[in-house]
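User: If you would, consider this record:
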Amino acid sequence: MQPIISISGVSKTYASGFTALKEVNLDIRRGEIFALLGPNGAGKTTLISIVCGIVNRSGGTVTVDGHDIGTDYRAARSLIGLVPQELTVEAFETVRATLNFSRGLFGKPPNPELVDQILKDLSLWDKRDAKVTTLSGGMKRRVMIGKALAHEPQILFLDEPTAGVDVELRQDMWAMVRRLRESGVTIILTTHYIEEAEEMADRVGVINHGEIILVEDKTELMRKLGRKVMKLELRQKLDAIPAALSKYALELTGDGGALTYTYDNQSERPGVASLLRDLEAAGIQFRDLDTENSSLEEIFVNLVRHS
């Protein structure tokens, strides 16, 4: 299937000489939730801004559902909804008027039923006739999401959408994102809350220093790069780890009352079954064991640190 967004060789160098993006290549699949992760200054917002036509690229091409963002800008942009990091709303308009105006900017005919449904989905119905200037920061964030959805986009960019907002809004937003994806909308999000990307995303891309360093299905990424930690609670304390177990690089913890073994699926180190056999052979008994998988955040930190 043809990607809904195709980014090829895109670079961006500002007049100051700073290079924000270096030959970025990335395809976004139709109907997926794609999480773009990276530290501050990595190029996330610059890349999104180029696709949305806000920032001019220095080189490369971008197509949105087959429309080149340079030669066919209007058609490409009409397919996109953008929720930027900054709060940019018409302060003295009412909430409902703000959404209606945003829909009209894209040449869409009035659709009061659709706008009312968006207001209800975003828990803004009670505030529909309030001036935007009277709203809290969290409510203004909801209005921005409503603006992005008012013209029925097929692609929704969420750039740090839950930064600084309350837990209730965050939960409402992700419920709405799931509904949008089910209706066929493609979602691209950046977030500092990596646990949200871990829960929501189908694929993950990591950008650092203006370069895409990895794109992978989330489950495959965690299988390849995730580490597992197994902790064994011993029946009797050890003063030291026997030499026969040195190949496992075990760590003695809990004042000698526990052994910790860290391993991964790609490692050539011996596996758990082998360890358990060797523990039995060494006469070491345990009363309990517990395993933990590394999180997407730990994988992300390790990727960025070594890129």
About this structure: Residues 226-305 form a domain with the Alpha-Beta Plaits fold (CATH 3.30.70). DSSP finds ten helices and 14 strands in the chain. The chain has two domains: 5-222, 226-305. The longest helix spans residues 167-182.
